[in-house]
Amino acid sequence: MDEQAPVVEVRRRRSRAEAEQVVGEYEASGLSRVEFCRRQGLSLATLARYRKRAQGKVVPANRWLAVEMANSTLESQGSSGLAVALPGDRRIEIRCGFDAHTLVQLLGVLER
Question: Angle at the Cα of 91 (from 89 to 95), degrees rounded to 5?
Answer without folding.
Answer: 160
